[in-house]
Amino acid sequence: MQTVTGLYDNYANARTAVNALEDAGISSSNISIVGREGETNESYAGEGAATGASVGAVVGGTGGLLAGLGMLAIPGVGPVVAAGWLAATAAGAAAGAVAGGAAGGIIGSMTNAGVDEDDAHVYAEGVRRGSTLVSVRVEEDQGDVARSILNDNAPVDVTARRAMYREEGWQGFDPNSPDLTEEELARERDRVREHRPL
């Protein structure tokens, strides 16, 4: 299996990508979506999000992946609305770390699934700053289809985003970072728009 991932500054693009992946025959159990709740990603309410939902509710939705959206907190990212395998493994890793078990959180979950560690740091930081992550695990023969779907929905250029973050001295995702306020998220959205290629 391989993991194909895209980061989106617009939740609608991420949602469209998830629906297209399902329409292409990729199982919801192999797709994951993780994003900050609120204005950053439009409203999740219409997608079945339940405030205070447990990880079990996040993973156990029916009627497609988006029907199973639920709330959870990921260390260093803050409160997110999420569904799918990445949400479950990141939350499980965080619970293990809190209980003195294995650490790793969202970075460990992605790298264990085959995502390049440098890219995983950008993806995690992107979610922390208000973007939405879509990650899909597929067999080799579905890799090109999944990659094409994610690329067709205006994902972030990870190399350019990494460079933008590093301009301000960022070295990598820090799970001990404080949650961003709504004001900080709004400033980050403005900053992303300024750096977005025309």
TrEMBL record:
<dbReference type="Pfam" id="PF11181">
    <property type="entry name" value="YflT"/>
</dbReference>
<feature type="compositionally biased region" description="Basic and acidic residues">
    <location>
        <begin position="184"/>
        <end position="198"/>
    </location>
</feature>
<feature type="domain" description="General stress protein 17M-like">
    <location>
        <begin position="5"/>
        <end position="69"/>
    </location>
</feature>
<dbReference type="InterPro" id="IPR052948">
    <property type="entry name" value="Low_temp-induced_all0457"/>
</dbReference>
<dbReference type="InterPro" id="IPR025889">
    <property type="entry name" value="GSP17M-like_dom"/>
</dbReference>
<protein>
    <recommendedName>
        <fullName>General stress protein 17M-like domain-containing protein</fullName>
    </recommendedName>
</protein>
<feature type="region of interest" description="Disordered">
    <location>
        <begin position="167"/>
        <end position="198"/>
    </location>
</feature>
